[in-house]
Amino acid sequence: MRRLLAAGLLAVVLTGCSDPEAAFVPNPPDIDVDTPALREAKDEAGIEDCVPGEGDPVDGGLPAVTLPCLGGGPAVDLSTLRGPMVVNLWASWCGPCREEMPVLQEFHSTHGDEVPVLGVDFQDPNTGLAIEQLAERGVTYPSVADTEAVLKAEPLRATALPLTALVDEDGVVVRVLPMELESVGELEALVREHLGVDL
Fold first, then answer.
1. Is beta strand 163-167 parallel, antiparallel or unpaired with respect to 173-177?
2. Residue 190 half-sphere exposure, CB side, CA atoms within 13 Å?
3. DSSP class of residue 137?
4. Cα–Cα 20 to 30 A to 92, which of 71, 99, 101, 110?
5. Are 169 and 83 in contact, with CB atoms under 8 Å apart?
6. Contact, 65 vs 79, CB < 8 A?
């Protein structure tokens, strides 16, 4: 009886994490984020290459971890990035992440030269589906891949998605927003308030 209850509870938990478009895979095998097929899909979608930074690590900044560019391209040491910029953690299995992608893309299209957007495909075993979802939503801003969930540590403490971090011109993470962004106006207001950028 206990085994049946445990199996039922596990099924409920996994069903709660699942999604019609993509199921979360606990403890996935090694995840490949750069294959010929992924490169081709990224190119066809018009997703931009990642851009490495040039700064040194700073207190309160993004961690000194190098993440590969999703779908190929230059790897990025997050600690070298300088803002003002928007860093958004997402995954193919996260429904609210998909809902806010058009908001981030519109912000990128309008303000990307002044305040770039960088996506982080977080703990996502479905890299092919991830690029497909970006393409379906017209996303062109780049994404790195955090396949081992290193960003669960400070300062982002990513335990739920979506999550957006605002990074200032000195590279300091000034605000972490564990919420779904619902409009471009909302994101513009957050950037004005926390990064001091008049958009």
1. antiparallel
2. 23
3. T
4. 110
5. yes
6. yes
Domain assignments of the chain as residue spans, ordered by start: 25-195
- What is the tens place of the pLDDT at every residue in 33-58? 999 999 999 999 999 999 999 999 99
Q: How far apart are CA 76 and CA 66, in angstroms?
A: 5
Do residues 39 and 50 make contact, with C-beta atoms less than 8 angstroms apart?
no
Q: How far is CA 176 from the centre of its chain?
A: 13
**Among residues 96, 149, 84, 102, which one has the least CA distance to residue 121?**
149
Mean pLDDT (whole number) for 145-160: 92
To the nearest 10 degrees (0 to 180), the angle between helices 184-195 and 95-111 is 70
> In this structure, what token pair is assigned to residue 46?
């018009």
Q: Considering the entire predicted model, what is its pTM? A: 0.85
Return the pLDDT at 13.
32
